[in-house]
Write a structure and sequence with these properties.
Helix 2 packs parallel to helix 7. Strand 19 and strand 20 form a beta hairpin. The strands form four sheets. Strands 1, 2, 8, 9, 10, 11, 19 and 20 form an eight-stranded mixed β-sheet that branches. The protein has a domain of about 230 residues: FAD/NAD(P)-binding domain, CATH 3.50.50. The chain starts with a strand and ends in a 14-residue tail after the last helix. By secondary structure, it is α+β, with helices and mostly antiparallel strands. Helices cover about 30% and strands about 30% of the residues. It contains ten helices and 21 strands.
Length: about 400
C-alpha cells in the first residue's frame, strides 16, 4: 500500500530507479519506489557493467555481489568479419575493476533490489502514475487506483517513454528522422571466439555485437532495417553469416530469448523541473553500441541520490541544478560516441578500406586505444559527474 507522504518518490524500478533508492536509503532518507509492472522483468536489453559503474556501485555496497555473478571481459574488439581492426584492453585500467562485467540486466536489477531491501526499502507494485502536480511544498503524484502520494521530491526513472517526464512538461529532443531498429537475443552458439571479450562486428548492413554471458550464453545485438515482431533462430543465424566470422562461422544451437526495439537519439532538455528530477533512460536514449546506456543511468542515479540526500540534510537546492548541468553534457557525449560507432559500421563498401586503415593506424595507436578504453569504461567521467561525485 502506498504511503500518504514520503521524502522522495522514485518512479521506475529498473537499474536506475533502484540505484537512486538504494543510495538514498544508504544515506538514511525515507524513499518510496513504485513500478507499473506487477513483477520485475526476467529479460532485458543491457548486458554490460563497466569499470566506473562498478566503482560507483561500490559506494552503496552493490559492486561485489554483482561482480560475483558476471563474466569478466578483459578486452573489446572491433572486427570486420575475420579481421581485427582494433583491440581495446581493459586489464590495465586504473581501477579496482579492470574489466567489463558481462551480466544480464535482470541480475543487475536483482542485486540492486536486494541491496535496497537490506537497507529497509522495497518496491511497491503495480502502481501506474496518471497525474503529477507540484507546488512550493513538493509534489503530489496520482495513480490509476486512486491513490495519491505527497513527496518532497519525485525522481523519474521510468524509461524512454517516461510518464514523469511527460507530466513534468520536459521536452525530449533529438535529431529528426526514423528511429533505429534493433534485434537482440540470448543464444547458445558453436563458436571459436574467445569467451573473455566482447566483439563489435562492423558491416555495411549495420553493427553486430557479440558478448559472452554467464551460463554459456551469448548476447547478440544487431541493427536491422526492420525488426520482425518475433526474431527467430533463422534471423540470428543469418545475421552471423552476414556479419560475423567467415573462416570459422558461428552456429546458433539454441535461442533462449529474443526481442526487438527501436530507439531514437534523444536527451531531455533539462533534468529538473521544480521538485521533479530525471535520471537514466527517462533523461537520455541512444544506440546500444558501446554498451553505455544503463551504465550512464546508474551513475546518474548514485550522483542524484547523493545530491538529494545532501539537499534534504540542509544543503542548497541549487546543487540539484548542478546535477543537471553536469550530467546532461555527459549524456550528449555518450550519445555522440554511440552514434559514431554505429556510423563507422554503416560506411559504404568503397569507404571501408579507408575506415579499416583508420582503425589500424590512428585508432590503434596506444595513446588513442587508452583514450577509447577510458571512454568505454566510463573512467573518463571521474570528477565530472556533478556535485556529489566522489568517484
Amino acid at each position: 500500500m502506498l504511503p500518504e507522504r514520503t521524502d522522495v518518490l522514485v518512479v521506475g524500478a529498473g537499474p536506475t530507479g533502484l540505484a537512486v533508492a538504494a543510495t538514498l536509503a544508504d544515506r538514511g532518507v525515507e524513499v518510496t519506489v513504485v513500478d507499473r509492472l506487477a513483477e520485475p522483468p526476467v529479460t532485458s536489453r543491457a548486458a554490460v557493467v563497466h569499470a566506473h559503474t562498478l566503482e560507483v556501485l561500490d559506494r552503496i555496497g552493490a559492486a561485489a555481489p554483482l561482480a560475483a555473478q558476471g563474466v569478466r571481459s578483459l578486452r573489446f574488439r572491433v572486427r570486420d568479419r575475420d579481421r581485427v581492426l582494433l583491440t581495446v584492453p581493459f586489464g590495465d585500467l586504473p581501477s579496482a575493476y579492470p574489466f567489463a562485467l558481462l551480466v544480464s540486466q535482470s541480475r543487475t536489477e536483482a542485486v540492486l533490489a536486494d541491496r535496497l531491501a537490506a537497507l529497509g526499502g522495497r518496491v511497491l507494485r503495480p502502481y501506474e502514475m496518471t497525474g503529477l502536480d507540484h507546488d512550493a511544498a513538493g509534489a503530489v503524484a496520482r495513480f490509476a487506483d486512486g491513490s495519491t502520494v505527497r513527496a518532497g521530491w519525485v525522481v523519474g526513472a521510468d524509461g524512454m517513454h517516461s510518464r514523469v517526464r511527460e507530466l513534468a512538461g520536459i521536452g525530449f529532443a533529438g535529431p529528426d528522422g526514423p528511429s533505429e531498429s534493433f534485434v537482440l537475443a540470448d543464444v547458445r552458439v558453436r563458436s571459436a571466439l574467445p569467451r573473455d571479450e566482447v566483439s563489435l562486428f562492423l558491416a555495411r548492413q549495420g553493427p553486430l555485437v557479440w558478448a559472452p554471458l554467464p551460463d554459456g550464453l551469448v548476447r547478440l545485438v544487431a541493427a536491422v532495417a526492420d525488426a520482425p515482431p518475433t526474431p527467430d533462430a533463422a534471423l540470428f543465424q543469418a545475421l552471423l553469416d552476414e556479419r560475423g566470422p567467415a573462416r570459422r562461422p558461428e552456429r546458433v544451437t539454441e535461442v533462449c530469448w529474443t526481442s526487438r526495439f527501436r530507439i531514437h537519439h534523444r536527451v531531455a532538455e533539462r533534468y529538473r523541473s521544480g521538485p521533479v528530477l530525471l535520471a537514466g533512460d527517462a533523461a537520455h536514449v541512444h544506440s546500444p553500441a558501446g554498451g553505455q546506456g544503463m551504465n550512464l543511468g546508474i551513475c546518474d542515479a548514485v550522483v542524484l541520490g547523493d545530491t538529494l540526500a545532501d539537499v534534504l540534510a540542509g544543503g542548497p537546492q541549487a546543487r540539484l541544478d548542478d546535477y543537471s548541468a553536469a550530467r546532461r553534457p555527459l549524456a550528449e557525449e555518450v550519445a555522440g560516441f554511440a552514434d559514431r560507432l554505429t556510423r563507422f559500421a554503416a560506411v559504404p563498401p568503397a569507404a571501408r578500406p579507408l575506415r579499416d586503415a583508420l582503425f589500424r593506424t590512428v585508432v590503434g595507436l596506444p595513446p588513442v586505444r587508452r583514450r577509447v578504453a577510458l571512454r568505454l569504461s566510463g573512467l573518463d567521467h571521474r570528477g565530472r559527474s556533478g556535485p556529489a561525485d566522489r568517484g
